[in-house]
Amino acid sequence: MSTTSSAAGLPGVPGIAAERVLVLDFGSQYAQLIARRVRENHVYCEIVRHNITAEQVRKHNPKGLIFSGGPNSVYEPGAPKCDPELFKLGIPVLGICYGMQLACDTLGGKVDSAPAREYGRARVQITEHGDLFAGVPASLDVWMSHGDQVSRVSDDFIPLAKTSTCPIAAVRHRSLPVYAMQFHPEVTHTPMGSHILHNFLMNVCGCSGAWKLGDFARETIQKMRDQIGNGRVICGLSGGVDSAVTAALLYQAIGSQLSCILVDNGLLRKDEQAAVIAEFSGHFKTDLHVVEAEAEFLQTLAGITEPQEKRRRIGHSFIDCFKREASKIKDVEFLAQGTLYPDVIESGAAVDGPAATIKLHHNVGGLPAELGFKLVEPLRDLFKDEVRRLGLELGLPEDLVWRHPFPGPGLAVRCLGEVTRPKLDVLREADAIMIEEIKAAGLYRTTSQAFAVLLPVQSVGVMGDARTYENTVALRCVNTDDFMTADWTHLPYEVLARISTRIINEVKGVNRVCYDISSKPPATIEWE
């Protein structure tokens, strides 16, 4: 689905873009978070480049524009600017942090390096409530992150808020629908931030908040029917939520025209193949092809210890297996992929996409263009949390929808050193025990990702009256909102004790269990 899809939608079904807000990205680490917060208010939102023209904006027909923050100073040469004609469109604008400074600078104000920089929590005093701060207390905690600030505004602006070190912390224009604030309403550290964004969307932009995932599903299903016609589609299943929701949507759209391929590379989690088979040959009754490729993958990984080489070999082997199986299915025209909106943003593939650094190595969806199929990407407008909610609406089981993320190379990057079948068996059992105990403690849904890692380390132990020299397993459990940063989860000691005891007692070849208490950064979530 293109980010330039028509706003008309289907007869009787509100189009996903019938009411939309655009976030102009000036390099902010929070641009995606702003878009998510807008969608949480049931208003469809997209991220676009900061230099989008007024004419391009007019074609999008948005209800509002939000200027994101960014790391630059507006007075520096080469700092990102917006098309000044945007302010003449009559479309409401909300500037946040750098976005405020840019709006005020463009409309006659002045921005300087702040005499006292503000990073972290601050207390703001609201001096005028009006539409933007309706229902907000006169004093509230907010999150600041700026070294510059607006030092002067033209007479066309009315100050709305201040802090002890920032006398102009929020403003509105007297005649134009332009609002701006120095603090960040999109982060959870601004407790009333969601309320303020809601005020902008409803009170200022006049949105109705009618966008719902059910409408998205119905429209997407119809669009896929129109795109695919009588053609046949193949979809790769991995056991993860993205591919599962993609397949479920396609099944509702085209039924028996869908064929799914599961490549069992021997690197899946315990019982993963059985779960996928049960769901997509039982519940959805799709044409499911299971490729038993464990021997092929283990052979290509034999003797390989370098993480990137593991990934490269697994990627090539997966494509080879997928192509071979796909060639056995007649009349295939389309390839379905579980591409998500963050993938589109980070790859630079979105029309009018953001100006953030493009990951040149990132191939959206993971399969190469030379496969020769037309792409179907029904989730490319959604964030991960929206995909999960959509999966529940489509009837997928909660265990599948809420399953923690799993790396593309599978257990190979959690089995440090050379990958062998015996080591994978040890890792699979230890990982399954960890997940079982976290679920039993009611902690699975409150953690973002949990897994076991088999280390290339043996240590001395005593089991019974015998000396042992066996494997070490590390446990990793993190909490995160966006997987860009993460903190280690403070699991209760008794839960860690049960996991350790069970792994050492039940998994042959393990005599030591450790818990990883590293945050990201400086560590990564995965070990390889």
Short structural summary:
It contains 14 helices and 18 strands.
Description of the structure:
The protein is α/β, with parallel strands linked by helices and 528 residues long. Helices cover 31% and strands 24% of the residues. The longest helix is centred in the middle third of the chain and has 20 residues, at 307-326. The protein is globular and about 80 Å long. Mean pLDDT is 87; it is low at 1-14 and 348-365.
Which keywords apply here?
528 residues, disordered N terminus, 9-stranded mixed β-sheet, 14 helices
Helix/strand layout:
Blueprint: E1 20-25, H1 31-40, E2 44-49, H2 54-60, E3 64-67, E4 93-96, H3 98-106, E5 110-126, E6 139-152, E7 157-162, E8 170-173, E9 178-181, H4 193-204, H5 213-228, E10 232-237, H6 241-254, E11 258-264, H7 272-283, E12 287-292, H8 294-301, H9 307-326, E13 332-336, H10 341-347, E14 374-376, H11 384-393, H12 398-401, H13 421-440, E15 449-463, E16 466-479, E17 487-488, H14 493-506, E18 510-515
Parallel strand pairs: 1-2, 1-3, 3-4, 4-9, 10-11, 10-13, 11-12, 13-14, 16-18
Antiparallel strand pairs: 5-6, 5-7, 7-8, 8-9, 15-16, 16-17
- The proportion of strand residues reads 15-25%
Low-confidence stretches: 1-14, 348-365
The geometry reads as: globular
Gyration radius from CA atoms, angstroms:
26 Å
Give the biggest beta sheet. Answer: 9 strands, mixed
Side by side, the strands of the main sheet go: 2-1-3-4-9-8-7-5-6
Number of helices: 14
The end-to-end distance, rounded to whole angstroms, is 33 Å
Tell me roughly what share of residues is in helical segments: 25-40%
The average pLDDT value, as a whole number, equals 87
Number of strands: 18
Query: What class would the helix/strand composition place it in?
Result: alpha/beta
